[in-house]
Specification:
34 strands; alpha/beta; eight-stranded parallel beta barrel; homodimer; elongated; 36 helices; eight-stranded mixed β-sheet
Chain lengths: 907, 907
């Protein structure tokens, strides 16, 4: 006996159900489910996704038995719908629709009105008493079938239609009369014959199989393949095909079609929300030619509109009943499609509804409160990405709409730091600071940014760059600061000298207003009003009280659940007391990465740093370092105070020293004047420190090994600070982290210095500090020899930024030349600097964990790369057994949620 | 019962033997062996190396039972030597010497004449009837013991000695008389008391234990620790201690001391070769104050010298007998030490003798011919390093000696390319070519070199740079060319503009003669005559006939053995027909790496290459590529012809495109004039291609992926060339290699292009070519995902240069800032760019092999990094199962030997 390839649904009984999405596709599974729930669904059947897979495996042939099964099921549909396929008096018409496991909106084909021909149209006229409707359906059918199944260019049909409109001198085809439509049908048929060499197929069975074949083929059209690449959908999933009896919302003013959400998908409010069109087919709603009406009174925005609730109160009540049934059954926001045919309601689709971050949070919290779902389910209902939206400032929606209508859209870049920002264009970071000091809002517009621009970035509302990717300096720092940021906007031509930026022939000057939306990447000319997120207003800005913000209260409640089901710790990457304190309110449980180098870029420090670098010998270096010591100590004191009771991981100096030196002759000259060192000497020192590949150069622990006095000073600053705050009653847990270790000997040497200094200071000050000395695992050799490194390390922290660079052999700074191409061409699924490459880099993480813990059973292991804020990476880290992830302050709640979700999945 | 810690030797019977070096140390094992061979050896005993290890483990305490065992064995020595330790009439005196498993010459301490005190000296006088000798020995003893055991500064003793000489007004202490010596002994003792607070120990047992302790302690002195670091000797091996009866070569003119080699260690000639001093102690020979005499007539260089053979014919005959016995027994060149005491010959040491490359080869070959050893043993007797010496040109030894005596030594750099070279200083590669064209010999002196200097490097006798390490561009290219090369000679201050080089205040101008020894790193002022190695004269230069060169004949014979026992293939890295043909005569079995990019640097090609790079679109690129196509095809045709019958692995374009562009404004201006492209456009293109980390940038297959037309052109050139030579009757086996693959998808994309082109051309030309498409494994991700990559790859070739850079996160070009420091401080044993890092990078190789062969059982795997010419790496590659290594032409014999040796070891 042949395998069962076809599942029936109809008349309150279906062979499938909602849990069979892999076989039936999302649409088919939910049609079956609704049928079983006794919701009115036009009868039909689903051809399994397997058939698609076998079809392609088998040189586009159908498996044995399929034809018979389709025939049998069609009979069942005829019985349910009390009509016959191709019948001249009472014809059954069907639709053929795709339906993959996950929604691929608009990517595959659909054919409607199958079963119409010159004979059955008579039956349709007979059934509907509406000749115009019948011929309009016939015309639509031939056009759709001609296009989708027979591959005839769409606009060839449109031309015929246009000609008819011109003949009749009307603007829209709905104004054509029956005779016109009959004429068009004839012309369409001629076109088909001319184009294909054969007459239009008038056998309903041929029509049906043509449509099924077209839907299967559309699984492998270019659009669909691309969509799958982008969305990581395997090619071998295949699509199901749904054959379903047609119902019509365009049979007159007792017919309608609409879409609705069981709750408001924008705000999450629990009210039935939707739109409909009277006397229309589904495609008319999508086409957007007519303005839909609200389904009920509460959705009404304009009093003059008439709602479905008012027009067809009974049908509306039935629909509302179905809404309640579906929500109770699915226990989630549903996105539904319905058609009313001559006063009878038919449901055509239900699926989980897309929603904004605000809605996701509200629905999740309220459904728990309503007893619909439990806390764990609520946690899985909010996407980590939603949290980012919740925290970002937003444009006033009306203002933005206005701007776009006025043609003020300029360009689109990469959406690097979420949120909207608007301000005056400034090209220079100093100027940004000055203007900000005067209370001006500015957008810092740069070709790219560097650590020397940080004060300007801080002062700006948002950052816009013409170069760089999602992990460029600008993007990283902006995300860390929670600033709106659009990068790699290559349409911008920035001229620092003339202080202008040209974009598509439009010239903007410094001081002109510009607006950027870091959530979408849009760049818009002029000013648009923005608002802080409420959560930020409550938590960080303190401009709103907790009790005044419902969304904040829900946020807070939601995260108590998140933390209940979470086991992995979330720390933050923070270099300043401000960062640390922001991270704390977002729930950080420690600092996982405190980069000491950023502390040296302040104007009053960089000169001393340069003095250290330019010193001729150890003596000179020590002298300069002794000036830096009190500054570093003060930095640590402040951070320790903020982090009272929580661990603080401090990384010793990491970047190559030339990063601290000026590179342009003018700047070197300035430094020469300042220091009294001759220009030539300075210049040659700068030259001698230049590196061919600074990422792989003299940096990380290689600095502290060649210049142990640097590590010594840093250790001294850390432990003197620790002792000082301990004496104030602060609980201090310093963890000293040695960067770029490749061999255990390096760690050993650096650890010796740290331990010696720590013991010295504790003895001198008569205080005991609990501290750890550990290492970053950020080059492949460290992961490969993690068992040895663990002999010295008291913790590991994966530096996945550098580990990704070295494992791939890709410089983040240079990747823009080819990575975008790679992603476009499907050579890479994700930007590996955004979501960890589990297949390659992930292996090294796993190896590092296994080997490290082989040596030290309970070795504490975390991650502190930018990946720590990426939800998928956080989940991976949980799966491989990390103790914590560390991310930028604004990503802390994101990571908390992702970690909790993975906990729940595991159980 | 306590463990046995002490092994006795004496009177023809020893408890140890030569195979017990791990326990007895090298010296002790061979003293035992000689004793067992009935060779006259002063009796003594060896304290095991284990004792040293336990001593350090146990807080510098001796293990239980040691003291008793030393006492017992000392009794045995007394019995053998018929004398008693500390006896006032017939005293036994002993020496205490270190002796580790491997020789650590001069690193540890020795104490002689132990057992002397104010009582036993009387016995010594009585025994020898030589009071002056006795007091001289006493003085030496106190001085040595005071220095080595008691830690009193050496020059404090020297001052006393000097005072005595002044008092007596003599130049040398041998001219002091007994009374003077007695006085000195008293003063020495006073010094000891003053310095240590205690009198000089006069109990012989105390003296003995003091000396033993001092020798054990010297295992951990700074020199010894450093030596072990440099020579990879584990710290826990420990040293043995040899306590042995003293014999004296300074008891009069019937006494003597000497060292000898059983064959000539410089040439390998089978003649007894050695030197001796009459009436002298061993330390006098080492001190080099007196000129030693030849031991026999054949060693005499000056007629006036009297040889030992002439002076003491009977003793000499006995010594010669021992020489024969030792050589037959050890079957290897022996380095021996002897002392003649009052006409009686004593042997103090025998060990395998160090030898030059010439001697190593000759001895190995001749010992096989003599039936002493078999071929396999011969193969293990020649070090791979020896082969490099055999191929290098040499300075005329007398000329070099003269130059050094004249103070013409200038500086020392890294010995990057072996061999001697002498010529006129030239700073500019073009100028080097011009002068070379005129028949001048030149040394190219550069701060560092780049691919654009290659023509100048070719034209030069040798290359000298002030920057760069052992794997800098200069070093790599020079080794590839087999040129003498000294790099990183930082004492040089090179000024291109003034065309001078300053070194230690000496100024040399362009055109001045300079000489460099790439085998030693020496840089010498002026001209020194050099000679080509004979093997090169025969094989490459054809300036000597095979039958005229004995060393060549031995070389040839030796390598027939090597190839008999070798299974791993050796290929070569060759980019030109000349390289390929040189490699062939050295035994290369294919090309493992043919870099196509070097072909684009020729002056007539680089412009077309630049045209390609500067093209605005695919069209323009294709146009330029079509001009490069015939050139590339011609290159491949020539190489295929040379390599008839052997595989040729061709790597597609690898370096970032900016390497082909000029970077200085003047050069850009020149190019602008040439191409008609505006300067600004060119300049901005050059800028836009600049990369922060070019090593990790847009290069390797990333070029061919973004610009598939490049790979297309290269594939076309390869297969059109292959077809062309096949039509000539050449057997051609092309292997196309895709560089820098990190994911199988990259390889798949590139392979598709290559296969498509290959099939297209084969079809068009109606020829069938056997070819493979494979990949380099040169970034960690490739090794980690080798199982997947092997699905597409038909072979793997490990690019260990880049793999080392990425696995360590170290840029080779920048490593000079810290790698030398790392090596000095023992953080790294070897330069990982010279000898593969087995612990880290080696893991990735093993992983790559395992995973690659998991997918494809018989996957061909090789290595083509510079490491392929490093003997230790070659052996590692054999062990992990590679099919071949590929190295520069001049390293091919080195690799052949190393591969054969590891084969033999494995069996």
């Amino acid at each position: 006996m042949a395998k069962k390839y076809v599942y029936f649904f109809g008349d309150g009984k279906a062979e499938g159900n909602k849990d069979m999405k892999n076989l039936l596709g999302g649409k088919g599974a939910n049609l079956a489910e609704m049928t079983n729930l006794n919701i009115p669904v036009p009868a039909g059947f689903t051809i399994l996704t397997e058939v698609c897979t076998e079809y392609y495996k088998n040189n586009e042939k159908y498996p044995e038995g399929l034809i018979e099964q389709v025939k049998e099921n069609l009979k069942k549909v005829e019985k349910c719908m009390n009509a016959r396929f191709g019948d001249p008096t009472n014809p059954l018409l069907v639709s053929v629709r795709s339906g993959a496991r996950v929604s691929m909106p608009g990517m595959m084909d659909t054919v409607l009105n199958i079963g119409l021909n010159d004979r059955s149209i008579k039956g349709l006229i007979n059934q509907t008493k509406n000749e115009k409707f019948a011929y309009d359906s016939y015309r639509r059918f031939i056009q759709m079938y001609g296009d989708v199944v027979l591959g005839i260019e769409h606009n060839k049909f449109e031309k015929i239609l246009e000609k008819a409109r011109k003949r009749k001198n009307v603007r829209h085809e709905k104004d054509l009369d029956v005779e016109d439509l009959k004429e068009i049908v004839l012309e369409y048929k001629e076109l088909v014959k001319k184009e294909t060499g054969s007459p239009f197929p008038d056998d309903p069975e041929d029509q049906l199989w043509g449509a099924i074949g077209a839907v299967f083929k559309s699984w492998n059209n270019k659009r669909a393949i691309n969509y799958r690449k982008i969305n990581n959908i395997p090619d071998d999933w295949g699509t199901a095909v749904n054959v379903q009896a047609m119902v019509y919302g365009n049979m007159g003013n007792d017919s309608a079609t609409g879409v609705a959400f069981t709750r408001d998908p924008a705000t999450g409010e629990s009210r039935f929300y939707g739109e409909f069109l009277l006397n229309a087919q589904g495609e008319d709603v999508v086409a957007g030619i007519r303005t839909p009406l609200p389904i009920n009174l509460v959705s009404k925005k304009v009093d003059s509109e008439l709602s479905l609730e008012e027009m067809m109160p009974e049908v509306y009540r039935e629909l509302e009943g179905i809404r309640n049934k579906l929500e109770k059954h699915y226990k989630d926001l549903q996105d539904i499609e319905f058609t009313i045919q001559k006063g009878k309601l038919w449901m055509l689709q239900t699926r989980s509804g897309k929603r904004t971050g605000f809605a996701a949070l509200r629905i999740a919290v309220e459904m728990v409160e309503e007893g619909l779902i439990d806390e764990k389910t609520a946690i899985t209902r909010v996407e980590p990405q939603h949290i980012i939206h919740l925290l970002a400032p937003v444009f006033d929606p009306r203002e933005k709409e206005k701007a776009l209508k006025e043609g003020r859209f300029l360009a689109k870049g990469l959406n690097a730091g979420p949120g909207a920002a608007s301000g005056k264009i400034v090209f220079n970071p100093d100027r940004a600071e000055i203007l900000n000091g005067k209370g001006e809002k500015v957008i810092l517009v740069r070709i790219e940014t560097s650590p020397e621009d940080i004060h300007g970035m801080k002062a700006a509302e948002g950052i816009l760059t013409s170069r760089g990717g999602m992990t460029s300096h600008a993007a990283l720092v902006a995300r860390g600061m929670g600033k709106s940021c659009v990068v790699g906007c290559s349409d911008l031509d920035i001229n620092y000298d003339e202080k202008i930026v040209t974009v598509n022939n439009k010239i903007l000057k410094e001081g002109d207003y510009i607006s950027i939306d870091g959530t979408t990447g849009e760049v818009i000319d002029g000013k648009i009003l923005t608002k802080d997120s409420e959560i930020l207003q409550v938590l960080i800005k303190k401009t709103m009280k907790e009790e005044d913000s419902k969304i904040y209260q829900q946020f807070k409640k939601f995260f108590t659940w998140v933390d209940k089901y979470r086991t992995m710790k979330i720390r933050t990457n923070a270099d300043t007391p401000e960062d640390a304190s922001n991270a704390l309110v977002f729930g950080a449980e420690g600092i996982g990465l405190c980069r000491t180098e950023h502390m040296f870029f302040d104007e009053d420090r960089i000169d001393t740093m340069r003095e250290m670098i330019l010193a001729e010998n150890t003596e000179g270096r020590k002298k300069a370092l002794s000036k830096l010591l009190p500054m570093q100590r003060e930095d640590f004191i402040k951070i320790f105070r903020v982090m009272n009771g929580l661990p603080v991981t401090i990384r010793t100096l990491d970047p190559p020293l030339h990063e601290f030196l000026p590179h342009k002759d003018v700047e070197i000259e300035k430094l020469a004047q300042k220091t009294g060192v001759p220009f030539e000497t300075l210049k040659s020192k700068v030259e001698s420190l230049k590196e061919a590949n600074p990422m792989l150069g003299h940096r990380g622990c290689r600095l502290g090994i060649v210049y142990p006095e640097i590590t010594e000073m840093q250790a001294q600053a850390i432990f003197e600070a620790a002792v000082a705050v301990k004496k104030e009653g602060v609980k201090v847990i310093p963890e000293v982290m040695i960067p770029l270790v490749g061999d255990v000997k390096e760690l050993k040497k650096q650890k010796e210095i740290v331990v010696r200094k720590a013991e010295e200071i504790m003895k001198r000050e008569n205080e005991k500090i609990d501290y750890l000395v550990g290492t970053m695992i950020e080059i492949p050799r460290a992961a490969l020899t993690a068992d040895k490194i663990a002999e010295e390390a008291e913790f590991f922290s994966f530096g996945t930024n550098d580990l990704t660079q070295t494992t791939f052999g890709i410089s983040r700074d240079d990747a823009a030349h080819f990575l975008p191409f790679y992603m476009r061409e499907g050579l890479l699924k994700n930007d590996p600097f955004e979501t960890l490459d589990f297949e390659g880099v992930g292996q090294l993480l796993k190896l590092g964990v296994e080997r490290g813990r082989k040596t030290k059973n309970n070795l504490k292991i975390g991650i502190c790369g930018e990946h720590g804020g990426d939800p998928e990476t956080v989940k991976f880290c949980f799966r491989i057994g990390l103790n914590y992830v560390s991310c930028s302050p604004f990503r802390v709640p994101v990571a908390r949620l992702a970690a909790a979700q993975e906990n729940i999945v595991e159980k």
